[in-house]
Design brief:
Blueprint (H helix, E strand, L loop, with lengths): L1 E11 L3 E5 L16 H12 L3 E4 L2 E5 L5 E11 L12 E9 L3 E6 L6 E4 L3 E9 L7
Antiparallel strand pairs: 1-5, 2-4, 2-7, 3-4, 6-9, 7-8
Length: 137
């Protein structure tokens, strides 16, 4: 059963969108280059060849374009595990998403306006799907 559906418009910069709960992230002054979640998640995205990486509760979605100030993002929260819809999407990745505080943030890699939304606190599985730009549906 789907509990929540939101249609969002988020920004991508430097070809990336970060998704995270601010409570899972370390305070700015306590982060070194070795334990900086955005860099770790970017490495995971490239090393895994999924173009989606995870580190310390942060998801890094690598996009096919350098920037997009109005990327559509559909957020669905449900009681059932996400099911891949291979017929609808060209690329599907499932990753862990801890949301302790109930606040979920979407942020462009280069900074800018944070898009915040509220969902029930919990440990989620995020299913990210994309289609090729030339085959937009």
């Amino acid at each position: 059963m789907t509990l929540l559906v939101q249609e969002l418009e988020v920004a991508a910069d430097y070809g990336q969108i970060y998704i995270y709960d601010p409570e899972t992230q370390l305070a700015e002054g306590h982060v070194t280059e070795e334990d900086y979640p955005p860099l770790q998640a970017l490495d995971d995205a490239h090393d895994s060849r999924r173009f989606v990486g995870c580190a310390s509760g942060l998801i890094d979605v690598c996009t096919p374009s350098q920037y997009n100030w109005s990327a559509p993002m559909r957020l669905e929260v449900g009681e059932e595990p996400p099911r891949p819809d291979a017929e609808r999407w060209d690329h599907v990745v499932e990753v862990a998403l801890p949301v302790r505080s109930g606040t979920l943030v979407f942020e462009a890699s280069g900074g800018g306006k944070l898009i915040e939304t509220q969902i029930p606190p919990g440990n989620y599985r995020a299913l990210l799907g994309a289609w090729l730009l030339s085959h937009r549906r």
